[in-house]
Write a structure and sequence with these properties.
The structure holds two protein chains of two kinds. By secondary structure, chain A is of the alpha+beta class. Chain A has a domain at 265-401: Flavocytochrome C3, Chain A, domain 1 (Alpha-Beta Complex), CATH 3.90.700.10. Chain A has helices at 15-22, 43-55, 93-103, 110-130, 162-180, 245-252, 316-320, 330-342, 359-365, 367-385, 440-460, 473-491, 498-513, 519-539, 551-575, 599-602, and strands at residues 35-39, 58-62, 80-81, 155-156, 183-186, 189-197, 200-208, 214-218, 221-224, 257-258, 263-269, 292-296, 313-314, 354-357, 394-403, 406-407, 420-422, 604-609, 618-623. Chain A has a five-stranded parallel beta sheet with strand order 5-2-1-9-17. In chain A, helix 3 crosses helix 4, helix 4 crosses helix 11 and helix 13 (498-513) runs parallel beside helix 15. The longest helix of chain B is centred in the last third of the chain and has 15 residues, at 240-254. In chain B, a hairpin with a 2-residue loop joins strand 6 (118-120) and strand 7 (123-124). Classes of the chains: A alpha+beta, B alpha+beta. At the A-B interface, helix 2, helix 4, helix 5, helix 10 and helix 11 of A face helix 2, helix 3 and helix 4 of B. The complex binds flavin-adenine dinucleotide and FE2/S2 (inorganic) cluster (FES). FE2/S2 (inorganic) cluster (FES) is lined by residues 65-68, 70-75, 91, 93 of chain B. Residues 39-45, 62-65, 71-73, 75-80, 162-163, 190-191, 225-228, 237-238, 243, 245-246, 282, 284, 401-402, 424-426, 438-441, 444 of chain A line the site of flavin-adenine dinucleotide (FAD).
Chain lengths: 637, 255
């Protein structure tokens, strides 16, 4: 089937304004009759729930943490982009749009990206008004920094904790609505199924993570704002609880999963130190503004880094990409690091690391300024490694970080299932095959504050409020399925722990579907996963019962979903016989090792339809048209 | 490699608070943590212990955690009597085993405070902190109603001060460390953030009274200037924000 993203046509500058005018509205007096279920209260979910509450809708919001303030958006460090052009350095909506389309390696929908760039400025205004303490200059004006993949300074930041401050802003707006009674918040609650009635999303089945109660919530629309899925690699920069579960259960109920193979490997993370490791820690990419990446020029150069003289250092990013240098985009910087390590010039344990050196910046700007800019990152680095980054170069290595893929949505952020909307990292939309730094925060807040409040009305206006109630047979059926699944997990009583399986899966996916993929490695994944799945259901051990706090049970469900999902990721990667953005197929590269896109055959988004756990999914294509930008080889040289 | 690590692994004795549910009695249980290296984080050490327990068919120790990088504020354990373990500006998830040595005995308990009922083992209910924020921890602006970001000028000094206060991760260590179970540092930080910014000033008065009232209703105690909160705070939030809270409160009485 050919999918239609329903992007508005005409001059791109006018698409969003035109569309906003053409959409239907819900009369203010009727809004409270509509109930909207918002799953996830990170940047996307909290901003959506708060904004819809302000408009007068009756909102229920859910998250698995004990408070909405703890969603993983909290961990974003570097900043958020906007096309304000305050520094007067040539930025504009068109430039942000262009950079994003190009940064995504021409695998995203033009109109969606334009809209993102257009509303980016409103986001900054909104956050400032909420009291988000963005960095300021001495005149009291907002300060900017630059970020990978851009030649202008358009990134707004709050020290090294931008995500925290933006999330706390959205959380405060959400708290205000909770107090006002427009939003009812359910923390420590996990969505485990989507309720679909006559083809439309009308509810969710959840498990209360404290009491174990499984119940159904119905509404007139469901918003999934449940974040990304890179924990499929086991070790990633995501939080321990981040999972594909909400998306996967919706996928199994008919929602299409788009471009699952587009995953972002972030170049600047602290290298793994042992097998016991439970997660990887990101060092913000903003560090590359002042830090220089290098490895020893010569093999077997075991001198301490500070003893290696200038002429024996290879500043490989500056060498390979003279115009972007250390600010080359993430996928490129990650692959370049891997290349140096594969070449045997990596540093640290196992040779899986490169240096990120601040010596020159400290000489130029003074340690004080570096501390002011990145103090908390240096502190974090020292806590983990016991090394002082001001004195010795940091060691970094790429790690799974972000999911560009997600559930397929149209221009209104609605999936192929009417009534199911998907926001933030959970959808596939604007970043194409690679996301630029500081643009996920922008997207999450654009979706929640400025897009969904309009587009949801267009759907709701065409439905009768409260059409489905919890006594609907689909609800009973869904509860029964969730209960049965839980009981099955608890009854295996095997020998291996859940984490053991997740480690095995993660290793398989990281080695074979990580930074470099090939037909052979991907086939291996697809061949091996059924055995892992089978063993999981025969040999996993989940202690305790379902009627209380049971973290093993939670993890078991998430792991079972990751095992199934990993196969889809590999299938998508296998079918995409080209390299683009974060998807690098070793068979498709130029002589200098750069990614080789195939626009003739693969200029489309791949949306997969579930056909059964043991059956191959069906591929639907949404062709991509480029009218406002010219398709070009993405070069950062 | 194996020789090297074998030499450097530690065995530790853990004495851990176990409690089945909010209304059940709790007690300490003793476990051994084996093969721990200096690079394990404290939570990774507990992971190792839990994996062993699961294999033995014993329910693992329940503890809250998520980001494991010191920013979400989820992790919450009292270690040897100190919230987050007592290392300066460090959450439990960032505490590393290099701070301990082979043969050490470690006591692990949940946050203990009247306003934080224990849910299971080391996991407590901190929703009272959310209720304090709901009582006024925001600037009332609807989406879409904001002027241009640079229309509101804020001196760098004020922005930095606001940011110092806003760094709070809401973990509740200040409450757990306080002999009175007070939430003054938490509340003071939020009130100070808004008090120092033009955006928040309009509703300053109702914010302070609302949040203080919520604090009391939730069962938090009063501040009697012990300053244990600042010592325990993993973000180093300064007690000057408590003084600011008191000043802002006094203002409401005379306005
Ligand atoms: C370490 C790190 C640093 C980053 N730095 C930057 C940066 O500097 N700039 C930038 O632009 N981007 C950055 N990103 C990316 C960006 O932070 C995320 O993409 C973005 O915050 C995601 O927001 P979200 O609202 O979509 O999801 P999240 O914030 O992950 O929220 C997901 C929500 O869904 C809930 N949830 C999930 N599953 C379920 C379920 N089954 N049931 C109920 N609830 C569920 C969770 O409880 C949570 O509330 C960074 C990411 C990481 C990991
Ligand atoms: S787990 Fe997030 S702060 Fe410790």
């Amino acid at each position: 089937m050919i999918l239609d993203g329903k992007s508005p046509t005409g001059p791109i500058e006018q698409t969003w304004d035109k569309h906003r005018f053409e959409m239907k509205l819900v009369n203010p007096a009727n809004k409270r009759k509509y109930k909207v279920l918002v799953v996830g209260t990170g940047l996307a979910g909290a901003s959506a729930a708060a904004s819809l509450g302000e408009l007068g809708y009756n909102v229920e919001a859910f998250c698995y943490q004990d408070s909405p303030r703890r969603a993983h958006s909290i961990a974003a460090q570097g900043g958020i982009n906007a096309a304000k052009n305050y520094p007067n350095d040539g930025d504009s909506i068109r430039r942000l749009f262009y950079d994003t389309v190009k940064g995504g390696d021409f695998r995203s929908r033009e109109a969606d990206v334009w809209r993102l760039a257009q509303v980016s400025n409103n986001i900054i205004d909104q956050c400032v008004a909420q009291g988000v303490p963005f960095a300021r200059d001495y005149g009291g004006y907002l300060d900017n920094r630059s970020f990978g993949g851009a030649q202008v300074s358009r990134t707004f930041y709050a020290r090294g904790q931008t995500g925290q401050q933006l999330l706390l802003g959205a959380y405060s707006a959400l708290s205000r609505q909770i107090k006002a009674g427009t939003v009812k918040m359910y923390p420590r609650t996990e969505m485990l199924d989507l309720v679909v009635v006559d083809g439309e999303a009308k509810g969710i089945t959840i498990r209360d993570l404290v009491t174990g109660e499984v119940r159904c919530h119905v509404g007139d629309a469901v918003l999934l704002c449940t974040g990304g899925y890179v924990n499929v690699f086991y070790l990633s920069t995501n939080a321990m609880g981040c999972s594909v579960t909400a998306l996967w259960r919706a996928y199994k109920k008919g929602a299409y999963f788009a471009n699952p193979c587009y995953t972002q490997i972030h170049p600047t993370c602290i290298p793994q130190s042992g097998d016991y490791q439970s997660k990887l820690t990101l060092m913000s990419e903003s560090l590359r503004n002042d830090g220089r990446c290098w490895v020893p020029k010569n093999h077997d150069d075991n001198r301490p880094p500070n003893d290696i003289p200038e002429e024996d250092r290879d500043y490989y990013l500056e060498r390979k990409y003279p115009s972007f240098g250390n600010l080359a985009p993430r996928d490129i910087a990650s692959r370049a690091a891997k290349e140096q390590c594969d070449d045997g010039r990596g540093v640290g344990p196992g040779g899986r690391g490169v240096y990120l050196d601040f010596r020159d910046a400290i000489e130029r700007l003074g340690a004080g300024l570096i501390r002011e800019r990145y103090g908390n990152l240096f502190e974090m680095y020292e806590l983990i490694t016991a090394e002082d980054g001001y004195k010795v170069p940091m060691r970094i290595y790429p790690a799974p970080h972000y999911a560009m893929g997600g559930l397929w949505v149209d221009y209104n952020l609605m999936s192929n299932l009417p009534g199911l909307f998907v926001l933030g990292e959970a959808n596939f939309s604007v970043h194409g095959a690679n996301r630029l730094g500081a643009s996920a925060l922008m997207q999450g807040l654009a979706d929640g504050y400025f897009i969904i409040p309009y587009t949801i009305a267009d759907y709701l206006a065409q439905t009768r409020p409260g059409a489905v109630t919890t006594d609907h047979p689909e609800c009973a059926q869904s509860i029964e399925e969730v209960n049965a699944y839980r009981d099955r997990l608890l009854s295996v009583n095997g020998k291996r722990t859940v984490t053991d399986f997740m480690r095995e899966l993660g290793h398989l996916i990281w080695e074979n579907a990580g930074m470099a993929r090939s037909e052979e490695s991907l086939t291996e994944v697809i061949d091996k996963i059924p055995a892992i799945r089978e063993e999981f259901w025969q040999n996993v051990r989940v202690t305790g019962n379902g009627n209380q706090v049971n973290q093993q049970l939670e993890n078991a469900g998430r792991t079972a979903d990751f095992v199934e999902f990993a196969e889809l990721l590999a299938r998508d990667a296998l079918h995409r016989r080209e390299s683009c953005g974060g998807h690098f197929r070793v068979e498709y590269q130029y002589e200098d090792g750069e990614a080789k896109r195939d626009d003739e055959n693969f200029s489309y988004s791949a949306a997969w339809e579930f056909k059964g756990v043991d059956r191959e999914p069906e591929l639907h294509k949404e062709p991509l048209k480029f009218e406002s930008v010219e398709l070009a080889v993405r070069s950062y040289k | 490699m194996s020789e090297h690590t074998a030499h450097e692994t530690m065995t530790l004795k853990l004495i851990v608070w176990r409690q089945k549910g909010p209304d059940e009695p709790g007690r300490f249980e003793t476990y051994l943590a084996r093969d721990i290296t200096e690079h394990h984080s404290f939570l990774e050490m507990l992971d190792v212990v839990n994996e062993d327990l699961i294999r033995e068919g014993i329910e693992p120790i329940v503890f809250d955690h998520d980001c494991r990088e010191g920013i979400c504020g989820t992790c919450s354990q009292v270690i040897n009597g100190l919230a987050h373990g007592g290392q300066t500006r460090t959450t439990v998830c960032q505490l590393h085993m290099r701070k301990f040595k082979d043969g050490d005995t470690i006591y692990i308990e949940p946050w203990r405070a009247k306003a934080f009922p224990i849910l299971k083992d080391l996991m407590v209910d901190r929703s009272a902190l959310d209720r304090i924020i709901q009582a006024g921890g925001y600037a009332s602006v609807n989406t879409g109603a904001a002027p241009d970001g640079n229309a509101i000028l804020i001196s760098k000094e004020d922005a930095d001060y606001a940011m110092d206060a806003a760094e709070c991760i809401g973990c509740g260590a200040c409450v757990a460390a306080c002999p009175n179970g007070a939430a003054m540092l938490f509340t003071g930080a939020k009130v100070s953030q808004f008090a120092s910014l033009p955006q928040g000033r309009e509703e300053g008065r109702i914010r302070v009274t609302g949040m203080l009232q919520a604090m009391q209703e939730c069962g938090f105690g009063n501040c009697t200037n012990h300053y244990e909160c600042q010592a325990a705070c993993p973000k180093g939030i300064d007690v000057k924000f408590i003084a600011r809270l008191n000043r802002e409160y006094l203002k409401t009485l005379f306005m």
